[in-house]
Every structure is written in C-alpha cells, then in structure tokens.
Amino acid sequence: MKTVFVTVGTTSFDELIERITSSDTVQALKARGYERLVLQVGRGSLLPAADSCPNIRLEAFRFKDSIAADIRQADLVVSHAGAGSCLEALGAGKPLLVVVNDKLMDNHQLELARALHMDSHLLYCTCSTLTETVRTMDLSVLLPFHPGEPKHFANFLDKALGV
C-alpha cells in the first residue's frame, strides 16, 4: 500500500496537519496512487481520528521512541524543515517534500530547504502551496543524499545558515 509519512518532529505545526488532511490535498495524494497517510503530529493541538479523512487510510500519533520504521515504510516523506527530520528522511533514501512553516520568525528552515532543493535532494513548499505541489511534483528529479558523510552535512548546514 503506497504510503505518505508526515512528520512535524517535536514541534507544533497544526497548519501542515490541517492542509495535508484537507479534502483537496487527500484527493491529490489519491490521484498519485497514495492510499495510506501516517501523521506524526508532535505537540500540535490536532490529532485527527482515523475516520476523519475519507478515501485514504489515516493513522495519527504524537510521538514514538523512533520514527525510523515509519520513514522506511513510506513511499514519500512530508516533513517540516527541521534539520534532524530532513537528515533522517534523506539518510533513509526516501523522496522528501519539505513544508516550510513561513509563519516562523527568522526562518532558517527556509534557507535549509532552499539549499537542499538547489542540490536536488528534496522538494519544498509552504502550506498554501502544498496541494498544488503534490499535484505537480516530479520525484524522479531528486538525487540521493549520502548519509555516510556527517561532516559534509555539517559543512552544508554551516553554509546554508551563514555560519
């Protein structure tokens, strides 16, 4: 069963959860062959019920000791732009769509997403463009990020964040 795994890490990103479970985004996911949506909602106020999203199998949880198995089982990972979440998904070799929280002040997440996108490791959007991005995304353009190079990632983060 083709699965999308959504993670907000330890944060609260209700806008992403609302948008990914909206009928138009679910319809776009279904049109691309996805049948299962697994949500890790973190500290958010939303914890959607399994029956709240008709036409797609929905599972939601707040936290687990590890989301590695969820990432491994996913055909697509949708994530906030936290460095840890990005690195875990990219390290697992999964196609990654990052949804930047454009409501954050001093948004370093956007810088990270742009830099990884420029190197063709992920696609990114905002909540307002998520549905259209799902409709039009071409995952075949993504290149692997080699996780065995932590120094490379640290240098990349320093460069992306202007350190």
Structural class: alpha/beta
- Low-pLDDT runs of 5+ residues are none
What helical percentage do the residues reach?
25-40%
Q: Looking at the structure, what is the overall shape?
A: globular
Strand content range = 15-25%
| Rg of Cα set | 15 Å
The number of helical runs is 7
Question: What's the overall average pLDDT, rounded?
Answer: 90
Please list the strands of the largest sheet in the order they lie side by side.
3-2-1-4-5-6
Q: Could you give the count of β-strands?
A: 6
Could you give a short account of the major beta sheet? 6 strands, parallel
Q: What is the H/E string?
A: EHHEEHEHEHEHH
Ends: how far apart?
42 Å
Gist of the model:
With 163 residues, the chain is α/β, with parallel strands linked by helices.
